[in-house]
Structures are given as structure tokens and as C-alpha cells.
Amino acid sequence: MLNYHELTMNEARDSPARRKQFLVICTVMASVLAYTALTSGLLETVVIEEGTYPGGTFLYKTVTSDPAATAGIFRVVSKDLGIGGYRDDDNWADLMYAVYLDGEEVPVGMRRFFGGTLVDAKTNDGKETRRKLMDEVNNEIKIVDDDSWLEKVPYEEGKLPRVKAGVTQFPFTNGFVSALIHTYKVNPIMERYAREHGKEGEPPIVSVTCSVEQQMCTHYAILEKQRDFLLGRPDSAEYMASKNKGKKKGIDYAKVWKGVKSLSPFKSASSEL
What we know:
Layout: H1 4-7, H2 16-39, E1 49-53, E2 56-64, H3 70-81, E3 96-100, E4 112-119, H4 124-141, H5 149-152, E5 156-160, E6 163-171, H6 176-197, E7 206-211, E8 216-222, H7 236-244, H8 253-261
């Protein structure tokens, strides 16, 4: 049975049939992309209200990458906990959390963030979760050779305080476009809110928890005890200084990134608080 390409293979490259085919394909692709962007919240306004970050014992992996990889680490942690992994009905809200240590002053691929689960270590469930991740899963990581790089990162343990925060909820589809919108539209707005409303001189920390089932992410701009959220790591200024220490003068990647982000289509969205 012949397909369309075989039937038209002898036609000229600029024939009306080929032009029509190209136009139809482009129209379908553009429509799908536009629909995906709209359902992911491209035109949504980020409304921030006063709230509280829950805090608790944080069992987490440390990642240096594009923050858009957050959904990937959520999947790995939920899979380790046996609560979903790659299903479409995962509800990670109030269980899976990411904490972003770096913001706009650090190039995207160099940004550090934590991804893991918040538990109450005093409860039996919290103790069991800690045992499973810190002992069982971490021990398996040492002998497994075929996992992805996220799965090979060992779990660590820290304590995050319950503090005042700016809070917003934003649509989430668990797709690539949704991840980009959260990374380049929502997170920068929350970071600026943390700078403007938090204690002067403190690092702007943003945290997020998402639910695939509810199709919603809750973002927190931390306004108190920000350095406690670094969990012993240096802040962004110290981090970038350590990266540049001893290097010969050359390309200033921070300045290059500053120029690139100035071209972002989401830049104007930062005024919609």
C-alpha cells in the first residue's frame, strides 16, 4: 500500500501538492504548540499572596542543571517511594518539593536545586520514608549500573524551617512546555518577590510543589531564614566566585546569560504581581 510521499515522489519540489502538504503540517504543529502553551499558563497572571512554607525534614537529591528538570527528579523520588513514578495521575503536592538555590544571576545550566520529599520525622510514616530513602535506596545506588544520572545521585537529609512566604498557584501539565513556563516565567517573578519582600542581603530562595492530578504547582518565595534553605551550600555569589576562581579572563558567562535572558518573551510578565 503506497503512502502519500510515494504517490508524490515524482512531483516537483515546489508543486502545489507539496506546498499544501507543508502548509497543513505547519498549521497543525502551530495549533498544537499554541494550545499547549495556553493550557500551560502562558497568558496567566502570577498572583502572589502571603502564606506559610510548611517546613520539615527534607530528604533530597542535589542537582546542578536546568531547573526545568524538576519534574524529572520528582518522578525519580516518587518512584523510589513507590507512589507513582511515571503515571499520569501522580499527586506530588505537599509531598514532593524542589528548592532553588540560584536565580537569574547564574546561567541556567549551572543552577543548583534540591528535589525530594518533606516528612515529619517524628511520625512512623516519616521514619519509614527516611529508612527507605537514606538506607535502602542509597545502598542500592552503589551497586546499580544502569540507572539514569538522576537516579544515581544519593539522598541527603536536612531540616527546612516553617516560615513566612509569598505563595502562588500556577497551572501545570507535566509537559515540556509547562516546565519551560514555570522555569522562565513563574520562578523569576517569585525570585524578585523574595528579593523585594525578604530581609535585605539574604539569598532569594524559591520552592515549589506540584500535582499532576490537580494540574497545579504551588510556588513559595521564602521570606525568612533563607540561609537555612541552602543546607550548608554557598549562596549564588559565593558559588559563582568559586567557579571563576583561578580561571583566566575570557567569556563572562554571567554577562552572556544576562544578555540572553533580556530577550526572553516572559520578561514583561514580571510586572504582573
